[in-house]
Specification:
Length: 507
């Protein structure tokens, strides 16, 4: 039997059968395709148009009234009227009763208590998300290893040593687990210098003025700067760039008391006392230092602490109150500072150089160490009725350097009460929000917005597509009865509208 030959065009009997079978197969496919097309056309469209709804003169074909209806204003009134100030006061008292530093057992207990509260008060879901992050802690168990600053004489005898702990000025402060003053992520070290240089606020323009107008060289020196104007982490970074081997940051009365006076301070008033010390992070990044850009889950890859990606400080840093600051500044020599560099201490502010007595030195002993600890975010969720996949987030961090009455617990207390009222309405079947409401309690915010950053890094695609708004309640109550709010321009009208609903009560 012959095969097909392209040159003579012959087709055998077997070849004719193949061609016929192909034609039949093509015809069957055509018929099936037409049938499927007819089915799609028949059932893919509505054979009968439903009666059109009309709202405000606009035809709304097949759209549920629930989707386009306005919110019930009576619900807003009910939520506002059911907020109990006594509850907020009780929550705040409990939240600020004990220290709850990030990464500690006390911090976890508060996270678990919030979780249980939200489950009890009728929210649909509550859960905790753990992250293993790099945090920082001073030595608190051995007095010989605790952070301190010393003035040494020419025989290395101690002329002055800073107190290891803050003074207890009120009985309510006498609690265990109060962490002594420290700057988180400070490099540990035992550094000594014959030069102590005063650099005002430690800004770039301060170093430039010092270089252009004096003979003071901060290379190899320990610098002392006052809190204010710029972030403390930037003060440490600039000191490092200019060659300092250590930095002391003190709070001057000019910036932290009423008109610079020290006569009306805590516990008689709310202004900073001489022993009051501002703890704080000096990490210049956001999120866990060892997992930048990625969530710090248990199996995450981590950079080393000394890598450039971690961006951790490389010189010792330590915060002190103006009581300690005065002892250090009054021992300094050198030219007097310009007028705008003077604080409110009753001393002559000098630029520094050598201390008053030949051979004297200043020593910084810093034992602060970094450690990977587990931190928790807590969430309470009320699912939306119409748009459950759209999120309105209400959040605040939970951790504090010590008691955290204003920052952050005043915000957490308010958030708890709002969630209680909303949860009870849902539990009673009387209301459900249009969109999903997520109450967020972030862990380890004080160290560099860590808990919130890790969560966003883990769920960034979902949040970018579905989040509608985020409202932060960090410090809900401070100072007087005025309101201060900040946010993106899209939130301006919402803030104005909300404040108009607040009733002003008589004093």
């Amino acid at each position: 039997m012959q095969e097909f030959n392209s040159t003579d065009g012959f087709v055998t009997k077997r070849g004719a059968h193949v061609r016929r079978n192909l034609l039949i197969s093509a015809l069957v496919c055509l018929v099936l395709g037409m049938a499927i097309g007819l089915l799609i056309g028949r059932f893919g469209t509505c054979p009968e148009q439903p009666e059109l709804d009309v709202k405000d003169g606009v035809f709304l074909p097949g759209i549920s009234e629930k989707i386009i209806q306005d919110g019930d204003p009576t619900i807003s009134d009910e939520i506002i009227n059911n907020i109990k100030s006594d509850n907020i006061r009780d929550y705040l008292r409990t939240l600020s009763e004990f220290p709850h530093l990030a990464g500690t057992d006390a911090d976890y207990r508060q996270a678990k208590e919030l979780h249980d509260f939200w489950k009890h008060e009728g929210l649909d879901e509550a859960y905790l998300t753990p992250y293993d992050v790099l945090l920082s802690y001073p030595n608190v168990t051995d007095d010989d290893m605790m952070n301190r600053i010393e003035l040494l004489d020419d025989t290395d005898g101690i002329v002055y040593q800073s107190p290891l702990r803050e003074a207890i000025l009120h009985p309510t402060e006498n609690k265990s687990d109060v962490v002594p003053p420290f700057n988180a992520y400070s490099a540990p070290g035992d550094v000594v210098s014959e030069r102590l240089a005063y650099v005002n606020y430690g800004r770039l323009e301060d170093y430039r003025w010092l270089k252009n107008n004096t003979s003071v060289d901060v290379t190899g020196a320990i610098v002392i700067v006052r809190y204010g104007k710029i972030f403390r982490g930037d003060k440490v970074h600039l000191a490092t760039l200019h060659g300092a081997i250590g930095i002391i940051i003190y709070s001057d009365p000019a910036d932290y008391t009423l008109d610079g006076s020290t006569s009306r301070v805590y516990p008689e008033d709310w202004w900073l006392p001489p022993s009051g010390t501002q703890r704080g992070t000096i990490y210049r990044g956001l999120g866990d230092p060892l997992t930048p850009g990625y969530p710090a889950t248990e199996t995450s890859y981590r950079y080393t602490e000394n890598s450039s990606e971690a961006q951790l400080p490389t010189i010792p840093a330590h915060p002190v109150g103006y009581g300690i600051g005065q002892n250090l500044l009054s021992a300094m020599a050198g030219e007097e500072v310009p007028a705008d560099w003077r604080g409110a201490l009753n001393i002559t502010y000098r630029l520094g150089g050598l201390l008053n007595t030949t051979g004297w030195k200043i020593r910084m002993f810093i034992s602060t160490k970094n450690a990977i600890r587990r931190t928790y975010n807590a969430f309470g969720i009320i699912r939306g009725a119409i748009e459950p996949d759209r999120y309105v987030l209400i959040g605040n961090h939970r951790d504090a350097w010590v008691f955290g009455a204003m920052d952050p617990s005043s915000g957490t207390a308010v958030m708890k009460e709002v969630s209680r009222v909303m949860g009870n309405l849902v539990q009673q079947g009387r209301w459900r929000p249009r969109r999903t409401v997520i109450f967020c309690s972030w862990g380890s915010e004080e160290y560099g917005l860590i808990g919130s950053n890790e969560w966003v890094e883990q769920y960034v695609k979902n949040l970018a597509a579905r989040s509608v708004a985020y409202v932060n309640l960090d410090t809900a109550v401070i100072g007087n009865f005025s309101l201060r709010a900040s946010g993106t321009p899209l939130m301006y009208q919402s803030i104005y509208h909300a404040t108009r609903q607040v009733q002003c009560l008589p004093f």
